Amino acid sequence: MKKWKSSLLGLTLWSLAAGSIAAPRELDKVVTIVNDSVILQSDVDAMLKTVQMNAARQNQPLPSSDILSEQVMEKLIIETLQLQQAQQFGIRIDDTRLDQAINQIAAERNMTVAQLQQMLVDNGISFAVFREQMRRDITASEARTIQVRRRINILPQEVDTLAEQLEKQTQQGVSFNISHIQLRVSEDASSAEKSEALSQATQLVKELNNGADFANLAYSYSKGPKALQGGEWGWMRKEEMPTIFADQIKSGGKGAIIGPFRSGVGYHILKINDVQGLETISVTEVNARHILVKTSVIMSDEGAQRQLEKARRAILAGEQSFADAAQALSVDPGSAANGGELGWQTPDIYVPEFKDKVETLPTGMISEPFKTVHGWHIVEVIERRDVDRTDAAVKNRAYRILFSRKFNEEAQAWLQELRAGAYIEQPENANDQG
């Protein structure tokens, strides 16, 4: 398909000029006009060859030639409309990106690019034509993605609802080892009594999240039926446990603290001690602290490195604390005021050199000075912990499913609107009818 900014008259004059200096031959015909672009017979022929090649490779039968030609024409019209949108957005696919896409296609077919070229030649398809068709496909796809994304709106409630459905599916046959604390408060208790019970339950959850022993707190505070067993109910599937427990356990993994939540007899806190039959997703978080020194006109790389080496020696010798050194030297305002601490983070958020240090450095050891794009650092890993991210993973999956559904729906609607508002004419057919 070729873009034309001139009129069809200009195309005719060009064709006549070409014929005056070359031997007579069949000229490429305009078969369809789409707004200010044209689809040529050579475009149709090239796509027909590609479709036939792919069908033969997959042993896929094709419809009759009339139906196939109609389908190919429709695809070319839709592609042209998307390319016109891409032109408005200024989308350009350079040769580097195009080569990457072709390499990927060859790899998916377990071929080298040279073997792919030969396969095309064997099927009568020019590699140059194939490349340009690939460029058009990618360009059209980008234009479609930009426009359709603007039309998609996913509400948090939609994500939560689908995530619950996915959790129910994945939790069939899953067993949970749970412990329970119940703080008793009757339905007819005063507002002050209910408020006091909730405050105590909230405080217990805070202590549990800070590492307090669940069994000890259950012995001391729980009025539940398993209080004398440290609150432990043992292994149960969701259908075997009290409904109020099952309703609260979503996709929480091992170690999750749930609550406080209310029932007719009081406030409850659950802990998932262990899970069987559920695929959980865990990530390692690192709590690290660092000192950052940046180079400048008056601070060379060597100067920054020496300054950090001096600070490191002072810290190791006990002459200065890491926090004091960070407050005095570090130019990272976010962490310097907090003694250099970066808080609990997954290493993936850091630049590669810093990520490598916090992943490999033993806990409590201060690194030698090293350089990143931000400047020179020394870093110490204070602590590491494994954190369950199953809940977040299920919600991410729910969001992706919803996005995919809505994208396909909105893409079809957008393409229909685009086609309905376009000027499309097939001159050859019009002439035949005239």
UniProtKB/TrEMBL annotation:
Quote the catalytic activity from the record: [protein]-peptidylproline (omega=180) = [protein]-peptidylproline (omega=0)
Enzyme Commission identifier(s): 5.2.1.8
Instruction: Give the matching InterPro entries.
Output: OMP_Chaperone_SurA, PPIase_dom_sf, PPIase_PpiC, PPIase_PpiC_CS, PPIase_SurA, SurA_N, Trigger_fact/SurA_dom_sf
Which compartments is it annotated to reside in?
Periplasm
For molecular function, the Gene Ontology terms on record are: peptide binding; peptidyl-prolyl cis-trans isomerase activity; unfolded protein binding
**UniProt main location, coarse:** periplasm
Free-text note regarding domains? The PPIase activity resides only in the second parvulin domain. The N-terminal region and the C-terminal tail are necessary and sufficient for the chaperone activity of SurA. The PPIase activity is dispensable for SurA to function as a chaperone. The N-terminal region and the C-terminal tail are also required for porin recognition.
Which NCBIfam families does the UniProt entry name for this protein? PRK10770.1
**Stored HAMAP family:** Chaperone_SurA (MF_01183)
What protein name is recorded for this chain?
Chaperone SurA
Q: Which organism is it from?
A: Photobacterium proteolyticum
